[in-house]
Specification:
This is R13L1/DRL21-like LRR repeat region domain-containing protein. The chain is α/β, with parallel strands linked by helices. The chain has helices at residues 52-56, 91-102, 125-128, 232-237, 332-339, 347-350, 387-399; strands spanning 14-19, 40-44, 68-72, 112-116, 140-144, 164-168, 175-176, 193-197, 204-205, 219-225, 243-249, 254-256, 263-267, 274-276, 283-287, 294-296, 303-307, 325-329, 355-362, 367-374, 381-383.
């Protein structure tokens, strides 16, 4: 704790870990009021603030030099951030924390804002309103552990300099509605990095094809949700999008018609079946997507990385694509089949690739096996797997 009298340090520029403690003789939010020179402020344990009147005494809106602001509550999600809605927060608590945060409206000078552990039903009013959002200099915005929040605020899309937005662990958001993008002439005019992580119940993203938004979005990361389809508006209007990472998304069955994406990474998407029409795609990484059976219209593909330790044969789509480089991580049984070269049933799926590197691990012997292949070297295979090893592996699997 910090003893009272802290407000006398009026020349302070950076203050980390200020506890919003309200008991006894310790420092509380009113001690922040006179600290007008602050450039960085991190306030923690805001759940301890019993009334909005205490938050008002911090006079955040008057700190015209403030650039970096961190507003933290102790997370209500705990180890259950990837689960369902947290049920231990009363409506009265939600209302109280919302009123406290409403009084913590930042000054227009703030460029970097972190809000963590907030458990109100809606985000602060100074974010929701499309007319009074004061954060017109904001460049980066992070939300984390929003236990009860049900929607993203509409006011963010009009921030003229926002270039990075990350939302992490918001289990009550089920839809991202049209209002998220329709409160400005060009929504998110400079946003180039968007991450939506741990929205575990999120199923629908409303973005119609005719709604122009995010013209400078360069990188998009979607992780751990139930999104059934990527909206048409994203493919049509995010004209600068070069990098797309999709991880642990349930129910997503296809990706198609992204004209400018260069790097695509797919991790643990169990229902993905089809990828088509990525004319500028150069590097594709696929990990644990067992239903993927269609990969087509990727003429610029230079590197394919495939990692799957359960598949028993190379996918059929390998016959129809022509990457220059192919990197494979698989079970030892499949690697042994690849190692037999032209006599392998897999030969027609990789022989046309210029460079192949394939790896497997032997759990019994703790050894890494490899197969190397270069098409220009007269189709020769380089491997540390001997023919006897291949025979033993086949025999072991048959007996097992």
């Amino acid at each position: 704790m910090i003893p009272r009298g802290f407000c006398g340090l009026t020349s302070m520029r950076r203050l980390h870990g200020f506890r919003a403690h309200m008991d006894g003789d310790w420092c509380s939010l009113d001690e922040l009021g006179p600290l007008s020179q602050l450039k960085l402020l991190k306030v923690i344990q805001l759940e301890s603030v019993s009334s909005a009147s205490f938050a008002a005494k911090a006079r955040l809106g008057e700190k015209i030099h403030l650039i970096d602001l961190f507003l933290h509550c102790t997370s209500k999600l705990g180890d259950y951030w990837f689960g369902k809605e947290y049920e231990g927060i009363s409506q009265a608590e939600q209302q109280r924390i919302a009123e406290v945060f409403d009084e913590l409206c930042p000054p227009p000078s703030v460029e970097n804002l972190h809000i963590e552990g907030y458990f109100g039903h809606q985000l602060p009013s100074w974010m929701i309103s499309t007319l009074t959002v004061p954060l017109h200099n904001l460049k980066t915005l992070y939300f984390s552990d929003l236990a009860c929040c049900t929607q993203l605020p509409n006011g963010l899309c009009q921030l003229p300099y926002l270039h990075l937005l990350q939302v992490c662990n918001a289990p009550c958001i089920r839809r991202v509605e049209t209002g998220f993008l329709q409160a400005a002439t060009t929504p998110f005019p400079r946003l180039n990095n968007l991450s939506l992580i741990g929205l575990v119940e999120w199923e629908e993203w409303e973005w119609e094809e005719q709604v122009e938004a995010m013209p400078h979005l360069d990188e998009l990361f979607l992780y751990n949700c139930r999104l059934r389809r990527v909206p048409l508006g994203l493919a049509s209007n995010a004209r600068a999008l070069k990098k797309l990472i999709i991880q642990d998304i349930q129910h997503l069955s296809y990706l198609e018609n992204f004209p400018l994406i260069v790097y695509l990474t797919l991790l643990g998407s169990p229902d993905l079946e089809r990828i088509t029409n990525f004319p500028n795609l150069q590097k594709l990484t696929i990990t644990d997507c067992p239903k993927l059976n269609v990969l087509e219209s990727v003429p610029a593909l230079n590197m394919l990385v495939l990692e799957d330790y359960t598949m028993e044969e190379l996918p059929e789509y390998m016959r129809d694509i022509k990457p220059r480089h192919f990197q494979l991580f698989c079970r030892l049984w499949l690697l042994c089949s690849v190692a037999t070269g032209q006599s392998s049933i897999e030969w027609d799926k990789f022989s046309h690739v210029e460079h192949v590197k394939a790896y497997a691990y032997d759990d019994m012997n703790k050894r890494m096996w490899y197969v190397m292949y270069t098409r220009s070297d007269n189709f020769e295979i380089d491997s540390n797997i001997s023919r006897s090893s291949i025979f033993k592996e086949k025999l072991y699997l048959l007996l097992w």
